[in-house]
UniProtKB/TrEMBL annotation:
<dbReference type="InterPro" id="IPR024708">
    <property type="entry name" value="Catalase_AS"/>
</dbReference>
<dbReference type="GO" id="GO:0020037">
    <property type="term" value="F:heme binding"/>
</dbReference>
<protein>
    <recommendedName>
        <fullName>Catalase</fullName>
        <ecNumber>1.11.1.6</ecNumber>
    </recommendedName>
</protein>
<feature type="active site">
    <location>
        <position position="124"/>
    </location>
</feature>
<feature type="active site">
    <location>
        <position position="196"/>
    </location>
</feature>
<comment type="function">
    <text>Decomposes hydrogen peroxide into water and oxygen; serves to protect cells from the toxic effects of hydrogen peroxide.</text>
</comment>
<feature type="binding site">
    <location>
        <position position="418"/>
    </location>
    <ligand>
        <name>heme</name>
    </ligand>
</feature>
<comment type="similarity">
    <text>Belongs to the catalase family. HPII subfamily.</text>
</comment>
<dbReference type="InterPro" id="IPR020835">
    <property type="entry name" value="Catalase_sf"/>
</dbReference>
<dbReference type="InterPro" id="IPR002226">
    <property type="entry name" value="Catalase_haem_BS"/>
</dbReference>
<dbReference type="InterPro" id="IPR024712">
    <property type="entry name" value="Catalase_clade2"/>
</dbReference>
<dbReference type="GO" id="GO:0006979">
    <property type="term" value="P:response to oxidative stress"/>
</dbReference>
<feature type="domain" description="Catalase core">
    <location>
        <begin position="77"/>
        <end position="465"/>
    </location>
</feature>
<dbReference type="InterPro" id="IPR018028">
    <property type="entry name" value="Catalase"/>
</dbReference>
<feature type="cross-link" description="3'-histidyl-3-tyrosine (His-Tyr)">
    <location>
        <begin position="388"/>
        <end position="411"/>
    </location>
</feature>
<feature type="binding site">
    <location>
        <position position="209"/>
    </location>
    <ligand>
        <name>heme</name>
    </ligand>
</feature>
<dbReference type="Pfam" id="PF18011">
    <property type="entry name" value="Catalase_C"/>
</dbReference>
Length: 743
């Protein structure tokens, strides 16, 4: 009896709060703009929203509509095109009854949703992509027959940038290698240049790839840490497997935390072979050089961004393209004679843990890439794009680099799981722009309606089609393969694991060296196993005694003696990121104003825009500040978003807006500075960014105690501040401020 009462009471209460309402109608409780009730013309489908066109060997048109899967028409339909009256309620046996099995719309909707996810990439899972155009200079015509490298040839491309270790949802700014994979849709077949922002690799033989990746990925028991190399298994592996030391020092340098994908070099890593129309061959290494120069974050900044804006690099690329600040890169090659020993200046060109310093072989520009279009749909394009080193047009071929050889297997293999079968080249983003006439048939997700009856050769039934040809065809070069016996061995030249690591270290400026020492100290400091730290210190001793001593001091451990005689190396200045000046295009400058704006802020904003950089007005609240549109408020702004800060107004807050813990801000009688503005300035200063002020803004610099330090300037007016600022931005950071900071 008691239980019955409780049930009734609950029922009454539930009925009281479930008065039926119509969404979007007055009184329905739906805030803001109501859902439109009459259909409008939808936006026209974008060019790449169609289904893949039917591919047939003979050009047979199946008559299928070309845009069958683009969003079309005003009315909702099932997957079969039947219009629907209601997609908000399942079909039930009465309003309170169970769902009926016959609800085909419910089952279609939920089943499709249940299968929306595909496996993330086993490495490089986190990434972002863009479309662009590659224009050849013609300078490579003498060394390759590839049509897309002929003078002024324009080739559409898709690029995907990525980190390596993290999962799909991990942060962008972690310390890691970055992928830089480019698909050139050439008229002679697709060419994929699957590159990284580091010119060497951890391993010399592809058979070790699962080992290095298992070591770098999170620990298998706890699945932590995410997207990090600062843990025991990574350092366990690289300290034992010392050929990884070269790649590792690049990761520990500022290259491991790029400022953006627009500020990053790319390297094909391996040596490739090019062949010209006369059949002559050369060996080449590919380099991408960013127009904006190579710049990096500082470590504390990278860590903060990972929390404040984990999509930082993805957002940067997307916003830059939307704003018309198209990222640009120049493609270059180092060219070497194709000699039987495949070495250059004593460097084994088949060893992917070695570079050829640019001072020994100049990088010769062969074309320019402009990224000018964001994907329409992230999943369709960026997630489904599939790269493969074996996608080679006539004129470019592989070498026997054992890492490259293994990659030739892995990239096709991995797509079979990731994209669910062998027909991934039918996915729009993967479709070649060259005519396809293969004899591959059937399989999961087949999109082509192949005509003909004889997908085999030789045949007579299809008139002997398709025919082989020597004209513009890929040729397997008659490269000599040494007569040898089967072995599981590397060439002896691969045994030198330290001399080029030393070369890298010795090519760094003092600031860059300081950052490398901090990075090693941080990462090893996160390891638990004493033996691993000691073993890595031994590897550092074999690289450079000074490097080892500094890291050992940071860890509080003795510096071991080297076990390998240090090599004599000639530093390569091209490896340093410092010492040059670069355009300030697309750099982001925060201008702090008060609630009523600030004198000169509007003029300086215009001048920044005219200089090709991006000004963002930061004010106490959103909306307008003295006629200026406010883009960031004191609540939403954080220093890491900006390359420089200008304070036009001390932005004096109302007394009660200052949190109690900051009540001591400023000396007695001084302007009260909003603590968030002070934090903005202090962080920017710590990260060696230029900071300037005029008017009452100068009070902020004084209260932060940074007046008179390098890169901190007081200007008479807004335009005056910009002139000074540009000089600092050209060098990216105020390097003189290091190493006084611990960034
Ligand atoms: Fe790899 C993806 C770059 C060695 C196996 N790799 C992948 C991507 C890049 C690279 C940029 C992401 C492509 C995308 O955006 O879809 N990988 C490199 C470079 C290497 C390298 C520059 C050394 C010079 N990779 C390497 C080895 C193996 C693989 C030695 C295996 C033996 N890589 C793969 C893979 C991935 C991949 C498992 C994962 C997703 C994919 O291929 O499509 O096949």
């Amino acid at each position: 009896m008691e239980a019955r009462k409780i049930v009734d009471a609950v029922k009454d209460a539930v009925e009281a709060v479930t008065e039926p309402t119509v969404p979007g109608t007055p009184g329905s409780g739906t805030p803001g703009v109501a859902e439109p009730t009459t259909p409008r013309e939808p936006l026209p489908p974008k060019s790449d929203q169609g289904t893949p066109e039917p591919v047939t060997p003979t050009g047979f048109d199946t008559g299928a509509p070309k845009t069958a899967r683009g969003q079309q028409g005003a009315y909702l339909t099932t997957a079969q095109g039947a219009r629907l009256r209601d997609t908000d309620h399942s079909l039930k046996a009465g309003p309170r009854g169970p769902i009926l099995m016959q609800d085909h719309h419910f089952r279609e909707k939920i089943t499709h949703f249940d299968h929306e996810r595909i496996p993330e990439r086993v490495v490089h899972a986190r990434g972002t992509g863009a479309h662009g155009v590659f224009t050849a200079y013609g300078s490579a015509e003498a060394i390759t027959s590839a049509g897309f490298l002929k003078k002024n040839a324009e080739t559409p491309v898709f690029v995907r940038f990525s980190t390596v270790l993290g999962s799909r949802g991990s942060a962008d700014t972690v310390r890691d290698t970055r992928g830089f994979a480019t698909k050139f849709y050439t008229s002679e077949g697709t060419f994929d240049l699957v590159a990284n922002n580091i010119p060497v690799f951890f391993i010399q033989d592809a058979i070790k790839f699962p080992d290095i990746i298992h070591a770098g990925k999170p620990h298998p028991d706890r699945e932590i840490p995410q997207a990090q190399s600062a843990h025991d298994t990574f350092w366990d592996f690289v300290s034992l497997h010392t050929e990884a030391q070269h790649h590792t020092i690049w990761n520990m340098s500022d290259r491991g935390i790029p400022r953006s994908y627009r500020h990053m070099e790319g390297f094909g890593v391996h040596t490739f072979r090019m062949v010209n129309d006369a059949g002559e061959t050369v060996l080449v290494k590919f380099h991408w050089k960013p127009k904006l120069g190579v710049h990096s974050l500082v470590w504390e900044e990278a860590q903060l961004i990972a929390g404040v804006d984990p999509d930082y690099h993805r957002r940067d690329l997307y916003d830059a393209i939307e704003a018309g600040a198209y990222p640009e890169y120049e493609l270059g090659v180092q060219v070497f004679p194709d000699t039987p020993d495949e070495t250059f200046a004593g460097i084994d060109l088949l060893d992917p843990t070695k570079i050829v310093p640019e001072e020994l072989a100049e990088v010769q520009p062969i074309g320019r890439l402009v990224l000018n279009r964001n994907p329409t749909n992230f999943f369709a394009e960026t997630e489904q794009v599939a790269f493969h080193l074996g996608h080679l047009p006539p004129g470019i071929d592989v070498t026997n680099d054992p890492l490259l050889q293994g990659r030739l297997f892995s990239y096709v293999d991995t797509q079979l799981t990731r994209l669910g079968g062998p027909n991934y080249s039918h996915i729009p983003v993967n479709r070649p722009h060259a005519p396809v006439n293969d004899m591959l048939r059937d399989g999961f997700h087949q999109q082509a309606v192949h005509a003909g009856v004889a997908p085999y050769k030789p045949n007579s039934l299809d008139g002997g089609n398709p025919f082989e040809t020597t004209e513009k065809a890929f040729a397997d070069l008659p490269v000599r393969v040494a007569e040898s016996t089967k072995v599981r061995e590397n060439p002896v030249s691969f045994d030198d694991h330290y001399s080029q690591v030393r070369l890298f270290w010795q090519s760094m400026t003092p600031v860059e060296k300081e950052h490398i020492v901090s990075a090693y100290t941080f990462e090893l400091g996160k390891c638990y196993e004493q033996a691993i730290k000691e073993r890595q210190l031994l590897a550092l001793a074999n690289i450079d005694a000074d490097l080892c001593a500094q890291v050992a001091a940071g860890l509080g451990l003795p510096a071991p003696a080297a076990t390998v005689e240090p090599a004599e190396v000639a530093p390569s200045p091209a490896l340093s990121q410092l010492g040059q000046e670069w355009p300030a295009d697309g750099r982001i400058i925060g201008i702090v104003v008060g609630p009523d704006g600030a004198d000169g802020a509007g003029a300086v904003r215009e001048a920044i825009l005219a200089a090709g950089a991006l000004p963002l007005i930061i004010a106490p609240a959103g909306g307008k500040a003295g006629g200026l549109d406010v883009q960031r408020t004191f609540n939403t702004a954080r220093s890491v978003e900006f390359d420089a800060i200008l304070i036009a107004d001390a932005a004096t807050p109302a007394a009660d807006a200052i949190p109690a813990r900051d009540a001591k801000a400023g000396a007695a009688g001084a302007l009260a500075v909003d603590p968030r503005v002070r934090l903005l300035v202090e962080e920017a200063w710590r990260h060696a960014k230029p900071v300037g002020a005029w008017g009452t803004g100068t009070a902020v610099l004084e209260q932060a105690g940074i007046t008179g330090t390098p890169g901190v300037f007081l200007a008479e007016s807004g335009p005056g501040a910009l002139t000074t600022l540009q000089q600092f931005l050209a060098r990216h950071r105020v390097w003189d401020r290091f190493p006084a900071t611990l960034a």
